[in-house]
Amino acid sequence: MEYKVRCGQKRYRLSIDRKDDFSEETAIDVGKNNYRVKIHEKTQGGDIRLISVNNKLLWVKVSRRSDGLPSKVMLNGTAYPVDIEKVESTRFKPETPRKQVEGKVNAILPGQITRIYVNAGERVRSGQPLFVLEAMKMENEITAPRDGIVHALNVRPEQLVSKGELLLEIKDN
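RESULT FIELD:
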């Protein structure tokens, strides 16, 4: 799981190896730095009290927002105000029909088509993965904007595409 974290004027990207309760040592990447974190003690209410970071013990008190994410973290008596935002999936969906011509799927970013899941003439459902567009070293799974039949498939694997280029067209059943 990935998060964007702001602590004071500094911004970090935090990546957690796996969804975990941290009862075992867990790898966390903060920017280019790697840490091993483990929870050693919790309160009766489930709040974290004692953790280790790279085998160094720290007393912790966390103040939370209404969504459950921390707003302030106190480590060994020093308070750090934090703003944490969960980074959503890289799965891109086509723009809403108001903004995009119905049934037409255009490239959302310049990049390269790495995988194609459908063929011309095939029936697709809204939200069904159509292909993968790799852009800026990230794989973006492009999904069908609506139900229908793939009328025109204008891409092939390994093809480079430009932003806005018509990639696929879906027509009524």
